[in-house]
């Protein structure tokens, strides 16, 4: 220990002579510094390497983080691009980050609440729907507000829609408006009341904030009800209820006779201003995608549940029965304007579901009439499936 200290003191006086060298060459200064630290040289080198490694790791981490942020930004931009085709351009410009979050948990997202009232008058068969107020609506515009209004309709007639006034820049609008629906008591239970809250936009498509659906079968109509309902994400636009039709089919292979009996229809869509229709039914046979034979029932005036019980007999040889489509279409007769198609369906080997089942039941039970109810489908859908144009070519004489 004593030796160590003396060598230290003897080194110190010699340093001034060295100082002239240190001013020109750095290593000797560092060496002197290292000498001053009371640690062995190998330990110092180890520490320097360790510190260097830590710094390197830190640098790698920083670079990685920066890259990630850039990537995320790019992703946000990508989401933004897709939303250009979406409902609102203002929404996209204003809150791209929020939209990004929405993609992940749409179900948990709060859309707000709606207070409504419901009252049914059994004498006048009228339902009074009151749109009271909304609270905590989701903000759709810049500045964190919306311009809400409410659309009200029943699923039995989606063409008849009422709407409230628009309330500008608020998430808690008080509407206090009521709407009357004429609806027979027997039809109430199968109906659903739909209220959709929209955000008005002057220059772009209006955005749906949320909706509530109330199946009226669950509602006690004896009492006036008033309550709050949580808004949910809008479901896909429902298929309009067009009506149902009961048909009997019978095929006798030995005589090649196909008998189609149009029995009755019910819950047909209202086509006329008086809330009724004048239905009749067309029965068509299509052979290899071409119109073959056609017949129609009489017109039943002012009714949504006509009773026809009219039979049509077609001559269809057994070798052709697999190649034909039987198309049933229900029409509303109009005196002044062109008749409208209410709905349609087709049976045959190309059909699906209920219609195919009925057709195969008929083939399996030769000679026996088989009756079944069918839901009418949208005309365009059936025409598309059949691959036919709405208007058929007129048949040539004798064909
Ligand atoms: Ca708006
Ligand atoms: Ca009519």
UniProtKB/TrEMBL annotation:
<protein>
    <submittedName>
        <fullName>Synaptotagmin 8</fullName>
    </submittedName>
</protein>
<dbReference type="GO" id="GO:0070382">
    <property type="term" value="C:exocytic vesicle"/>
</dbReference>
<dbReference type="GO" id="GO:0017158">
    <property type="term" value="P:regulation of calcium ion-dependent exocytosis"/>
</dbReference>
<keyword id="KW-0812">Transmembrane</keyword>
<dbReference type="GO" id="GO:0005544">
    <property type="term" value="F:calcium-dependent phospholipid binding"/>
</dbReference>
<dbReference type="GO" id="GO:0030424">
    <property type="term" value="C:axon"/>
</dbReference>
<dbReference type="GO" id="GO:0030672">
    <property type="term" value="C:synaptic vesicle membrane"/>
</dbReference>
<comment type="similarity">
    <text>Belongs to the synaptotagmin family.</text>
</comment>
<feature type="compositionally biased region" description="Polar residues">
    <location>
        <begin position="1"/>
        <end position="12"/>
    </location>
</feature>
<dbReference type="InterPro" id="IPR001565">
    <property type="entry name" value="Synaptotagmin"/>
</dbReference>
<keyword id="KW-0472">Membrane</keyword>
<dbReference type="Pfam" id="PF00168">
    <property type="entry name" value="C2"/>
</dbReference>
<dbReference type="GO" id="GO:0016192">
    <property type="term" value="P:vesicle-mediated transport"/>
</dbReference>
<dbReference type="GO" id="GO:0099502">
    <property type="term" value="P:calcium-dependent activation of synaptic vesicle fusion"/>
</dbReference>
<dbReference type="GO" id="GO:0061891">
    <property type="term" value="F:calcium ion sensor activity"/>
</dbReference>
<dbReference type="InterPro" id="IPR035892">
    <property type="entry name" value="C2_domain_sf"/>
</dbReference>
<dbReference type="GO" id="GO:2000300">
    <property type="term" value="P:regulation of synaptic vesicle exocytosis"/>
</dbReference>
<feature type="region of interest" description="Disordered">
    <location>
        <begin position="1"/>
        <end position="23"/>
    </location>
</feature>
<feature type="compositionally biased region" description="Low complexity">
    <location>
        <begin position="13"/>
        <end position="23"/>
    </location>
</feature>
<dbReference type="InterPro" id="IPR000008">
    <property type="entry name" value="C2_dom"/>
</dbReference>
<feature type="domain" description="C2">
    <location>
        <begin position="241"/>
        <end position="374"/>
    </location>
</feature>
<dbReference type="GO" id="GO:0031045">
    <property type="term" value="C:dense core granule"/>
</dbReference>
<dbReference type="GO" id="GO:0007340">
    <property type="term" value="P:acrosome reaction"/>
</dbReference>
<dbReference type="GO" id="GO:0005886">
    <property type="term" value="C:plasma membrane"/>
</dbReference>
<feature type="domain" description="C2">
    <location>
        <begin position="110"/>
        <end position="229"/>
    </location>
</feature>
<feature type="transmembrane region" description="Helical">
    <location>
        <begin position="42"/>
        <end position="67"/>
    </location>
</feature>
<keyword id="KW-1133">Transmembrane helix</keyword>
<dbReference type="GO" id="GO:0048306">
    <property type="term" value="F:calcium-dependent protein binding"/>
</dbReference>
<dbReference type="GO" id="GO:0000149">
    <property type="term" value="F:SNARE binding"/>
</dbReference>
<keyword id="KW-0677">Repeat</keyword>
């Amino acid at each position: 220990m004593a030796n160590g200290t003396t060598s230290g003191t003897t080194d110190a006086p010699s340093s001034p002579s060295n100082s002239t060298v240190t001013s020109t060459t750095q290593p000797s200064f560092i060496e002197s510094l290292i000498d001053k630290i009371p640690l062995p040289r190998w330990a110092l080198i180890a520490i320097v390497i360790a510190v260097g490694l830590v710094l390197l790791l830190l640098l790698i981490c920083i670079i990685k983080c920066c890259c990630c942020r850039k990537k995320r930004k790019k992703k946000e931009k990508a989401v933004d691009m897709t939303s250009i085709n979406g409902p609102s351009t203002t929404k996209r410009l204003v809150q791209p980050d929020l939209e990004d979050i929405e993609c992940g948990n749409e179900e948990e997202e709060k859309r707000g609440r709606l207070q409504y009232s419901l009252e049914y008058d059994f004498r006048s068969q009228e339902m009074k729907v009151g749109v009271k107020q909304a609270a905590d609506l989701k903000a759709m515009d810049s500045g964190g507000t919306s311009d809400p209004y409410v659309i009200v309709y029943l699923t039995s007639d989606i063409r008849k829609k009422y709407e409230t006034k628009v309330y500008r820049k608020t998430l808690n609008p008080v509407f206090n408006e009521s709407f009357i629906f004429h609806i027979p008591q027997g039809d109430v239970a199968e109906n659903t009341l739909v209220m959709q809250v929209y955000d008005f936009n002057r220059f772009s498509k209006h955005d749906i904030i949320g909706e509530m659906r109330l199946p009226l079968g669950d509602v006690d109509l004896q009492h006036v009800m008033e309550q709050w309902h949580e808004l949910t994400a809008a479901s896909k636009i429902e298929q309009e209820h067009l009506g149902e039709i009961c048909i009997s089919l019978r095929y006798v292979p030995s005589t090649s006779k196909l008998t189609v009996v149009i029995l009755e229809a019910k819950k047909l869509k209202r086509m006329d201003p008086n809330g009724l229709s004048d239905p009749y039914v067309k029965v068509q046979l299509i052979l290899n995608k071409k119109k073959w034979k056609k017949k129609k029932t009489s017109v039943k005036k002012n009714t949504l549940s006509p009773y026809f019980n009219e039979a049509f007999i077609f001559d269809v040889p057994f070798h052709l029965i697999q190649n034909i489509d039987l198309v049933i279409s229900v029409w509303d007769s109009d005196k002044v304007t062109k008749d409208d198609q209410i709905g349609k369906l087709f049976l045959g080997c190309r059909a699906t579901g209920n219609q195919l089942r009925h057709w195969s039941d008929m083939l399996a039970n030769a000679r026996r009439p088989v009756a079944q109810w069918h839901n009418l489908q949208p005309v365009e859908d059936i025409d598309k499936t059949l691959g036919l144009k709405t208007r058929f070519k007129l048949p040539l004489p004798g064909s």
